[in-house]
Amino acid sequence: MNYTAGCFVGRIWNSAQGGPCLVTIKDNYVYDITSKEIPTIRDLLELKDVKEYIDRCESTKLVSTEILFQSSMKKNSDISLLAPCDFQSIKACGVTFAKSMVERVIEERAAGDPKKAESLRNHIGGLIGDSLQNIIPGSQKANEVKKALISEGLWSQYLEVGIGKDAEVFTKAQTLSSVGFGAEVGLNPISNWNNPEPEIVLAVNSKGVIKGATLGNDVNLRDVEGRSALLLGKAKDNNASCSIGPFIRIFDESYALNDMKSAHISLKVEGKDDYVLNGSSSMSEISRDPEDLVSQTIGRHHQYPDGFMLFLGTLFAPTEDRDIAGEGFTHKIGDKVTISEPNLGELINYVNLSTACPQWDFGIASMIKNLSQRDLL
Fold this sequence. Notes:
By secondary structure, the chain is α+β, with helices and mostly antiparallel strands. It has helices at 41-46, 50-56, 65-72, 98-110, 114-128, 140-151, 157-163, 222-227, 232-236, 257-260, 290-297, 364-373; strands spanning 7-14, 19-26, 29-32, 60-64, 79-82, 89-94, 168-173, 184-187, 194-195, 198-204, 210-218, 220-221, 242-250, 264-270, 276-282, 308-311, 336-341, 345-353. The strands form three sheets. Strands 1, 2, 3, 4, 5, 6, 7, 10, 11, 13 and 16 form an eleven-stranded mixed beta sheet that branches. Strands 8-18-17-14-15 form a five-stranded mixed beta sheet, with no helix packed on it.
């Protein structure tokens, strides 16, 4: 991607500064904009006009974006990309696309067994697939479909959050635990059926204002969640199971919320076994309006003093077989996952077990101590 237009912000680890730094991009070069006034992304997104601040603030030229991306692909680099968020909560919405609703029902009925999924896919998909198209969640038509499905014995908790009035919003990862471009993403070793989930991620401040968007990989353990929806936390929140990046694109005159709503996200998985999977997710097909998802997350009912990052869900649900006929897709260690969108860039990660990925040890206490030691608080 050519970073000559638009307002991008992010975070890097800079050994020369002894910790995380805020950065922006100007003409394909990365600039450090960390200051005592604005030491965190959280503080930056609280500003009324982020772009105006970036245009006037002091900055230090570091490296080209090309060199930063190359450095981020290497382990233990002196400078590398981090997830472009810090003190924000990491939230996610599930079952926001009709196709993914069908796949979640299949996972539930298969009880996490990929061998059963194919026959269920043909049966259930044929019965309910078309009836879910173009339905507004919580509408009268949605309620009519709900009654019809219940009468056929096909109602599911996934369809409830898919077409019911209340969206599924859950905690995807802990604050500061997300990984960024070039890092390994982790699979809990208990899983044998899993996949990437390419998504748009909104950056929302404490007032509920959507300040920008980026890309994310909501790594998903299909067999674990399929066994029981009550295992959602175990399926979603593991070491290195959340990737966000590479940068947040701030909404301005060059890129706004309506542009994001027409985004087409591409996915490519490349295995060491020469396997290649291509997929996509189009925001134009989302069943719920992103602004409604934000309002269901933050409001008088729930506050986020440090803001939050919100995964919007995905249309992508891989069904093609990788090895064994009828068992669909699952990751293998070493898979390269590339999620891209023309206006937001490219997020690349490599798959490993959560137990083999670097341990997460830089939490909130470490962040505060680090900023204090650098006289940024």
